[in-house]
Amino acid sequence: MRIDVLTLFPSMFEGVFGASILGKARDKGIVSLNTVNFRDFANNKHNTVDDYPFGGGGGMVLKAEPIFGAVESLTEGSEEVPRVILMCPQGETFTQRKAEELSAERHLIFVCGHYEGYDERIREFLITDELSIGDYVLTGGELPAMAVIDSVVRLLPGVLGNEQSAVTDSFSTGLLEYPQYTRPAQFRDWSIPDVLLSGHHEHIAKWRREQSLLRTLKRRPDLLEHAELTAKEREWLKRQQESSDRS
Length: 247
Hints:
alpha/beta; three-stranded mixed sheet; Alpha/beta knot; Trp Operon Repressor, Chain A; tRNA (guanine(37)-N1)-methyltransferase activity; tRNA (guanine-N(1)-)-methyltransferase; cytoplasm
C-alpha cells in the first residue's frame, strides 16, 4: 500500500511513521509512508496557500490550487485511482468498518488543512472521502490523519505478528473485546477466571464471547443494534439486562 499525506507540517509525521507498528510495516516494505508539503505547490511569489473567504467572514480558507497541484503530482502517469481523503469535522465518522474498507486500497492520499475551511471545489472535484474522528475541533488534520493511518495499516497482511490480533480487536467483530489476562494467575488477592486455566478451548471461546457481549452491553449498547448475533445470544443479553435492572 502507498500512503501520501498532504500537510504543511511534514515533521509532525517523522516520529509516528518511524516508530512502532507503522515503522515496522514500512521497514518490511508492506507500506510506503510519505509526506508532501503542499506549500511547494503554491502558485504565487509568497507561497501562500490560504486566502480570505469570498463574501466576508472570519478566518482563512485553504486555496484549491496547491491541493490540486500536489495530488496531481502524486498521480501523474499512474493508472491507479487513489482514494483522496479529507480530514474534516464535517466528514463521516471514522469506524473500524471504514478502516477495513480503506485497507483494501492500494493508494491513499490524506489532505490535512490548518485553516477555517477548504475551498469547496476541493471537496466537489478532488476528494473521494471526508473523515472525522469525532465531534470536536482540532488545530489541523494531522493528528486525525495519523490515527486513521495507524488503524488502516495494522490491518494489512504481515503487519501484526499475530494476524488473529486484528480479527479479535474491539470493533472488528462489531463488539468490544473480552477481558484479557496474563501471568501470574494470582496477583495480590486477585485471581483470573478458572475457565482460562481449564485448557478447554470450547469453554474458553464461550466465556470470551459472553464477556464480549456483556462488556458491549454495559459500555457501548449502541453497537448491539448492528452486531451479528444469534437469537440465542439476543435472548441471553435480554436476561442479563433484566437482571441488571433488578439489581
